[in-house]
Design a protein that fits this description.
With 269 residues, the protein is of the alpha+beta class. The chain contains six helices and 17 strands. α2 packs antiparallel against α3. The structure holds pyridine-2,4-dicarboxylic acid and zinc ion.
């Protein structure tokens, strides 16, 4: 049953009346979201045409049956929307990504806030490599799976990245969204618009360290081979959410491999 139709009749009427009065669907969705009706809020924006949409994971069940795999939800935070998924990738898929990336890894870079160029920085001490969408068969499969899980078109995604962290390698606290107040944002949002969501896939088990930590929310997600983490960088009205500050904690034992997929507001072509 649709999450909107599962709402009490009075609230269904409230939605209809406000839409008829011309109130922004995104604003109505924020109200539903704040009342805790998360799936209904996302359904409202994603099933209506002329409004801003957002990637969404259906949290009504503890598992999600995708066309090629059943995955399970192990953790949720609703504001901001953060969901941890178990068994998203098979061990073979993790190995395939690692083997392909290993010989191509170079020092990771960050966006220069002054001009939008990419520079090396001691805030991000990993090596990494980037791919085109659909560059290999495994990448194609994974991108379709992400798209199905998040109800977000494949062409709204940046190319996959694979990162390797070892011996204290980390990614210090940062935002993945582009802050409209920064000059560089104009350059980096020309193609694809805002980075509305982040999808991280953990490709290796790590002895110690390497958690993805949200310092303003006081929790962290530990790396586990095959599991994934999604978080929304913007709210249902499209506004950036500073609570999404997050870090890749230093790896202190073992090697962490991670794959990143950033989701854009519009086609990234
Ligand atoms: O490696 C991580 O856990 C991590 C944490 C935060 C990666 C990113 N951000 C990123 O690639 O944006
Ligand atoms: Zn990040």
């Amino acid at each position: 049953m649709s999450a909107l139709r599962a709402l009490e009749k009075d609230w269904q009427e409230w939605v209809k009346e406000n839409i008829a009065r011309g109130v922004s669907v995104n604003k109505l969705a924020v109200t539903l979201f704040n009342k805790g009706w998360i799936d209904a809020a996302y359904e409202l924006i994603n099933d209506n045409s002329n409004n801003l949409k957002a990637p969404h994971i259906n949290t009504s069940h503890n598992y999600i049956q995708l066309s090629d795999k059943r995955v399970s939800i192990s953790f949720t935070c609703y504001s901001p929307f953060v969901v941890s998924i178990d068994d998203f990738l098979s061990f073979d898929e993790c190995q395939a990504l690692i083997s392909d990336a290993d010989s191509k890894l170079k020092a990771s870079r960050v966006v220069n806030p002054k001009d939008g160029s990419f520079i090396e920085h001691n805030a991000r001490t990993s090596t990494s490599t980037g791919y085109q969408r659909g560059q290999t068969a495994v990448i194609k499969t994974i991108e379709s799976r992400i798209s199905e899980l998040l109800h977000w078109p494949v062409d709204h995604g940046e190319g996959l990245q694979v990162l390797r962290y070892e011996d204290g390698g980390e990614y210090r606290p940062h935002f993945d969204f582009f802050d409209p107040a920064k000059k560089s944002s104009e350059v980096v949002t020309k193609k694809g618009g805002q980075r509305v969501g982040t999808f991280l896939m953990y490709l290796s088990d790590v002895g110690a360290g390497g958690a993805t930590r949200f310092p303003k929310l006081n929790f962290e997600v530990r790396p586990k081979k095959g599991s994934a983490l999604y978080f929304a960088n913007t709210d249902l009205n499209g506004d950036i959410n500073p609570l999404t500050l997050h870090a890749g904690m230093p790896v202190t034992e073992g090697v962490k491999y991670l794959s990143t997929k950033w989701l854009r507001e519009k086609p990234y072509v």
